[in-house]
Structures are given as structure tokens and as C-alpha cells.
Amino acid sequence: MDHYIMNLTLKVWRQKNNQSKGNFETYEVQGISSEMSFLEMMDVLNDRLIREGKDPIAFDHDCREGICGMCSMYINGRPHGPWHANTVCQLHMRAYHEGDVIVVEPWRAKAFPVVKDLIVDRSAFDRIIQAGGYISVNTGNAVDANSIPIEKDHADASFAAAACIGCGACVAACKNSSAMLFVSAKVSHLALLPQGAPERKSRVLNMIAQMDKEGFGSCTNTQACESVCPKEISMANIARLNSEFIGAGLSADK
Amino acid sequence: MSITGLSLIAFLVVHVGVNACIWARDGGDMFNKASHFLGTTVVIRILEVGLFAGIILHVVQGLVLEVQNRSRRNVAYAVKLGNRGSKWYSRSMGLLGTLLLLFLIMHLSHFWVPSRFTELQTVNIDGKDIPNQYADIVNIFHNPIVDVLYILGCLSLLYHLLHGFQSAFRTLGLGNSRYMSLIKIIGFWFSIIVSLAFIMMPISVYFGWVSE
Ligand code: HEM
Ligand code: SF4
Ligand code: FES
After folding, report:
1. Cα-Cα-Cα-Cα dihedral sign, residues A87, A92, A93, A95
2. What's the pLDDT band for B121 if we cut at 50, 70, 90?
């Protein structure tokens, strides 16, 4: 693909802190290379803002290779921007052309309060994982890695669910701000493996209880989450979560 | 939601089946017999109580769910994901349900209230006088405004079911890819056939395909 240089108009959500109201600011950015990543384009803009003595735009990022789940921008109405199965850090400026207007917003959900500008507090996800996203293992010598037989299909489905990076795009995309895709990935990942069996019932009950406590909405199966998930987590996991939940609810001791 | 929704779907199967009797081309005899049978059978009367309980539960739960879910985002997005992520009717179940509720109120006051609480004209079939529900339908559907409202009500039903049918199975935990593709196909055709059958009733009367 040919390399090209473009000038863009950015409308970025600026918000001082959780208490302040926030508003869009418009920035003209010049000389952007089609080979930059979206975050590098943001770095160029921030570099200029700092030189001008202004407050740079706060945004989350860490690995910049699509595996940590930190980057979180809602770009022109879609979490992580226009590309399918992609994170913002892996979005490249060749997705845009001269004169494009790009609107950048933070994830919006009550359970994800804005910390500053485009950064939201996603610790609700951490608390959901703490509520049940663990297994019991014996101490002592490490067991042989292949000593427990696991059906191939289950291993594959578990692995696919484990690919969830906890980015929160599913919540951002959902009209109900529901976290079901995330929770379903975390529950499926362990429920499908023999290692997850000891806490199978308490895990799903506790994680769902924590999810509700954090103030996420209820799933109505619109499928918006699946369409934006950078790791292509399937809605089939939500059905599995529902059946795990119903089964555990009917048969758990408490 | 899923259990009450599926119960309502089960009711629709019976309802659409009985209604199809108006097309028997026998001056309404078959339809009148069927509706008289349903109206005088104890089991059906008991199921009717359950049906009303189901509708009320479904409506109350649905509206509470809609209000709660709307409250989970306090600042709206400037640019919406919209149809890029989901179907418009999947996002509009609360609205479609409310239209259905308005339709149901009209529908019950047209047919259910008169047949339950007032004396309809009677007709003699096989030597017995039974209420002429058929004549009542033909009479009511002669009004084009009523016909348009009925068609709109049934279109709301169509879209409510297009999402609701498969959503109910997902909610109950049946979502692996093998069954889901089957459920999607059944749900699609079920929604279309049931809604079309209901829509054809006022149309048939209006154009005189069904008459006394
Ligand atoms: C003939 C009548 C009706 C039928 C057959 C029906 C069927 C269904 C089904 C199958 C579902 C999916 C349940 C799930 O996913 O768990 C549903 C959901 C829903 N219904 Fe109904 N329904 C009817 C009438 C109504 C009425 C009158 C209202 C409200 C005033 C309503 C409001 C809702 C709402 C808000 C939802 C949940 C939203 C969602 O899952 O996206 N429905 N309905
Ligand atoms: S399910 Fe997908 S969108 Fe949701 S947190 Fe995990 S990776 Fe992100
Ligand atoms: S910065 Fe790690 S996934 Fe984007």
C-alpha cells in the first residue's frame, strides 16, 4: 500500500476529572503518516499540546500490541475504531484519508467512571475476576503437564474464551452497558476445564453477583458486544454463562 | 422474561390456528364452533388466567428491565454504534413491546370483553344456538382505521418475535452453534408466518374475501 500524508480534524472528549462535566475539543492535526498507528497520531498531537503549554490528552495504553486490553477509545461511534477484531493500538492511520473528521470518546458506562479525558476506571472488571476467576491447586511438586486428559473441543473453546483481554469494549458497545460477554468469557474459560471444576458453581454465582453489584446492565442479546470484540469472543459463551448460572442456581447448596 | 415470552409464543400458536378457521369458506361455522368450544371449556378458562398472569408479568418485567438498562449509561455517546453492531429491532424491544401492549388493549376491548361480558348475536349451527363471533369479526374489520391499527400491531409483533424468539433460547442457556442456527431459522419463519396470518385477517375482511 502506498504511503501518504494527511491532515485531519479530531474532536476529542476532554474531562478534567470524574466530578467535572466534560466537553468536546476540536484539534486540527497536520502531516499524519498513513503508516502511523492511531496512538502514535495521538502522541504527535500530545507532543504539540505539551510544546504549546497545554494539557495533553489523557488516554490508556500499555502493550501497544493488542494483548493487554488497556487502550480504550470509542472512535466515530465504534469501540476500538473501524476495523474488525482489532484494538485501538493496532488501528493504523491508513484507515483514514485527507480531511477526515474523527470523533473520539471514552467508554461510557456508569460502571466505568471517567478518570480523565479518555481514561475510564475499569477496576469493576478486576473485582468481578476476584469474585470467582480462580482455581484451587495443590501445592507440592508440579504435576506433569499432560496428566489430566481434556477433550480437544473443550480445550479449544476454553482457549478461545481465555483470549479475552478485559478491554471493556463489549460494555462500551452495549446499549444496556452489560458486561455479560466479558463475564461469560471469564466463566467459560474455567468452566470448560477439569481444573475449573471445584469452584464451578460458586464461581458463576459470585461473579454474576459482583457484576450486578458493579452496576452493569442486563443482557438482552442484541449482539453488539460480539461485533466489536477485538478477540472475537462468541455470544455462545453468554448462553453457556446462562446455563451455568441456571444450573448452579438450582443446585448449589446455598 | 424468556419463560413468559415463550409461554406467550405457545399461546400464539393456538390463537393463529383457531383464527385460520375463518378461511374455511363455510360462512364461519368452523370458526364459531372452535371459538365456542374454547370459550366453554374449563381447561381453557384456567389457562386463560395463566395467560393473563403471564402477560402482566412479562410486561412489568420488560418495562422494569428497559428502565434499568437505560439508567446504566449517564452520558450518551455523540456518535452511536447503531446498526453496525445490532439490528434496530433488537435494540427496540421495549418500544415494540409497548406498541404491542397498546394493541392488546384495543384487541381485548374489541373481541374479548364483548364475548365474555355481553351477549353476542347467536347463530344456529347443528341445531344449537352459539355466539356468532365470526360476524363480530367481519363487522369490526369493516372499519379501515381499525384494519390499519391491526396491521401496525402485527408488524410490532413480527419484529418483537424476530428478536425475542431466539433471544429467549439464549437466555435459557441454549446457545451452542449447532442448535442456535436451527433456532434462528425456526424463529425467523415462525415470526413471519404468524404475523402474516394475523395481518391477513383484517385484509381478507376488508377486501371481501371473508364475508358473512
Ligand atoms: C404476543 C405478545 C408477546 C410475545 C409473544 C412476546 C415474546 C417475547 C420474547 C420471546 C422475548 C424474549 C425473552 C428473552 O430474551 O429472555 C420478549 C422480550 C421482551 N418483551 Fe415481549 N412478548 C410479547 C408482548 C410484550 C409486551 C406487551 C411487552 C411490553 C409492554 C413486551 C416487552 C418485552 C421486553 C421489554 C422484552 C425484553 C427485551 C429484550 O430481551 O430485548 N413484550 N418478548
Ligand atoms: S469480551 Fe472482548 S470486548 Fe469484552 S472485555 Fe473481553 S476482549 Fe474486550
Ligand atoms: S495497548 Fe495493549 S491492547 Fe492496546
Report:
1. negative
2. confident
Task: Give B194 to chain A, closest Cα distance, Å.
Answer: 22
The interface predicted TM-score of the complex, written ipTM, equals 0.90
**Positive or negative CA dihedral for A12, A16, A18, A20?**
negative
Kindly report the number of other CB atoms within 10 A of residue A33's CB atom: 15
Within 8 A of B163 by CB-CB distance, chain A residues are 221-222
CA B136, B142, B147 angle in degrees (round to 5)?
A: 100
CA angle A196, A201, A204 (to 5 degrees): 85
- Cβ atoms of A233 and A164 closer than 8 Å: yes
Q: Which residues of A158-193 are buried (b: 16+ CB within 10 A; e: fewer)?
A: bebbbebbbbbbbbbbbbbbbbbbbbbbbbbbbbbb
Question: Which pLDDT score is estimated for A227?
Answer: 97
* pTM, entire model: 0.93
> Quick one: pLDDT band at residue B105, thresholds 50, 70, 90?
very high
Measured at the CA of B85, the angle between CA B79 and CA B86, to 5 degrees, comes to 115
Domain ranges, ordered by start, for chain A: 5-105, 122-253
- Residues B101-124 have a mean pLDDT of 88
* From the candidate CATH numbers 3.40.50.1100, 1.10.1060.10, 3.30.70.1150, 3.40.50.1260, the one assigned to the domain spanning A122-253: 1.10.1060.10
What parts of chain A have a pLDDT lower than 50?
A: none
The identity of residue A114, as a single letter, is V
Q: Are A45 and A27 in contact (CB under 8 A)?
A: yes
Interatomic CA distance for residues B3 and A238, integer angstroms: 17
- Residue A5: partners with Cβ closer than 8 Å, 6 or more residues away: A31, A32, A33, A34
Q: Given an 8 Å threshold on Cβ–Cβ distance, is B75 in contact with A217?
A: no
Q: What is the DSSP letter of B176?
A: -
Distance CA B197, CA A115 (A): 54
Q: Which amino acid is at B112?
A: W
> Is residue B83 less than 8 Å (CB to CB) from chain A?
no
Which residue is it, cell 353476542?
Answer: B120
A101 vs B: CB within 8 A? no
pLDDT digit string, tens, across residues B124-154: 888 888 888 899 899 999 999 999 999 999 9
Domain at A5-105, CATH from 3.10.20.30, 1.10.10.10, 3.20.20.140, 3.30.870.10 = 3.10.20.30
DSSP secondary structure code for residue A92 in this structure: B
